[in-house]
Amino acid sequence: MEHLDRDALSALQDIMEDEYPLLLDTFLEDSRKRLGQLHQASNAVDLGAAAHSFKGSSSNMGALRLAELCRQLEQLAGQLPLVGVEELINQIDHEYELVRRYYETERERFPVRP
User: Fold this and answer.
1) For 29-66, how does the pLDDT look when each residue is reduced to its tens digit (9 = 90+)?
2) Is the pLDDT assigned to residue 89 strictly greater than 90?
3) Theoretical Cys-Cys bridge with 46: which of 36, 41, 83, 100, CB 3.0 to 4.6 Å?
4) What are the angstrom distances between the C-alpha of 101 and each of 44, 76, 94, 95, 108?
């Protein structure tokens, strides 16, 4: 599976115009919080909710594999006993690092406005 849907990102850039860099910044900041929520979830309900939120934002930003991993985690959180959660969260961490580097590089293409 592709890591990123570049067509989706291109469409977002067209739609957001001058606000596109802000969208990238917001996604990066929001994603760090969502990762923290995944790691700190103390029960299946919180884990499922965090995975669901991260899935949606990742999907909207064209992060296909990240969204799919979050979907798997959301589904897993609905099944007891919870088995394989740590491994899946590790995969999400790894995928997020790949995606984060791409979005940060993408963000550098746009000068910071005062």
Assistant:
1) 999 999 999 999 988 999 999 999 999 999 999 999 99
2) yes
3) 41
4) 30, 27, 11, 10, 11
Measure the CA–CA gap between 86 and 67, rounded to whole angstroms: 17
What CATH homologous superfamily does 6-108 map to? Answer: HPT domain (1.20.120.160)
Instruction: Kindly report the average pLDDT of the chain as a whole number.
Output: 92
The domains of the chain are located at 6-108
One-letter amino acid for residue 38 of the chain: L
Residues 100 and 41: beta-carbon distance below 8 Å: no
Map residue 61 onto helix, strand or coil.
coil
Specify the DSSP class assigned to residue 5: -
Tokens representing residue 111 in the block:
């000068």
Residue 82 has pLDDT above 80, yes or no: no
